Amino acid sequence: MVATRQLPIPKMTARRFGARCLPALTDDALYERTGVRIAFTGREGGVSEGPYAALNLGNHVGDDAEAVERNRALVLEALDAADVPLVVPSQVHGDEVVELDDASPKALAAARDAARAGADALVAHVANVAALLCFADCVPVIVVSPTGRFAVAHAGWRGVENGVAAKAVRALARADSAELGPDAAGAYNVYVGPHIHASCFETGADVRKRFEDRFGSSCIPDERHVDLLEALTIGLEEAGVDRARVADAGACTVCSSDEYFSYRASGGTCGRHGAVAFRKVR
């Protein structure tokens, strides 16, 4: 598949993948245009049990390690990417971005080492590598360029505040500048997966003030809550992204904790759903 210079307006739909009919949110028009497959998974379709049931993709939450590895394999199999190497960062609520610009085994190993050391975004400049980041209320972000480059970012409230997704966008834009020009980010599609929405994200006054000082009053809907999506979008606009190309899944993890993992709704013990992206070239 060859990328064109303009992407379809981002739109996510729910569909089922593979023999196990694993459900995920995706954008098929994007895939047809660029070869980049994005997917936001939910709870259904895996082998984990108890509070991690069933498709837990996080290996740091107390679940059986073999079950987590099986769940990750099931996702890649369902997405027709069983043979695509996977990079899974150890998320630390920071702003570290790992970039992968070479698909060689040595470069892949180095990227995995850097990701395991602690990172909250992965930028892939090459095909045949998959990124997986894990969530349970934090904001999942996938950014896709017309060139086929992509980024996946994990933005909790600290990640939204410190601009990790915008930092990933700037890394993409630097790499794309030769092909797309200095305003490359304006052509990107941004997909925001299920996360805690403003109506459920109640915070202390100190956090609200930090967000209002940084992003303005539009991300403070009332005296108790913060709108992470609005703050994230403002930060992305500062990095050159067109607001019209930011698509939200429209699902609150707290309100829909039967479909998605929610740290708040579960009281702190739960699995993690995922944001996955790759560009497969045979």
UniProtKB/TrEMBL annotation:
Presence of keyword Transferase: yes
Catalysed reactions listed for this entry: inosine + phosphate = alpha-D-ribose 1-phosphate + hypoxanthine; S-methyl-5'-thioadenosine + phosphate = 5-(methylsulfanyl)-alpha-D-ribose 1-phosphate + adenine; adenosine + H2O + H(+) = inosine + NH4(+); adenosine + phosphate = alpha-D-ribose 1-phosphate + adenine
Keyword Hydrolase included in the entry's annotation: yes
Gene3D superfamilies per the UniProt record, alphabetical: CNF1/YfiH-like putative cysteine hydrolases
Keyword annotations from UniProtKB, A to Z: Hydrolase, Metal-binding, Transferase, Zinc
GO molecular function: copper ion binding; hydrolase activity; S-methyl-5-thioadenosine phosphorylase activity
Superkingdom per UniProt: Bacteria
A Pfam family annotated for this UniProt entry: Cu-oxidase_4
Similarity field: Belongs to the purine nucleoside phosphorylase YfiH/LACC1 family.
PANTHER family tied to this protein: PURINE NUCLEOSIDE PHOSPHORYLASE LACC1, UNCHARACTERIZED PROTEIN YFIH
Free-text function comment from the UniProt entry: Purine nucleoside enzyme that catalyzes the phosphorolysis of adenosine and inosine nucleosides, yielding D-ribose 1-phosphate and the respective free bases, adenine and hypoxanthine. Also catalyzes the phosphorolysis of S-methyl-5'-thioadenosine into adenine and S-methyl-5-thio-alpha-D-ribose 1-phosphate. Also has adenosine deaminase activity.
Identification of the protein by name: Laccase domain-containing protein
Record lineage: Bacteria, Bacillati, Actinomycetota, Coriobacteriia, Eggerthellales
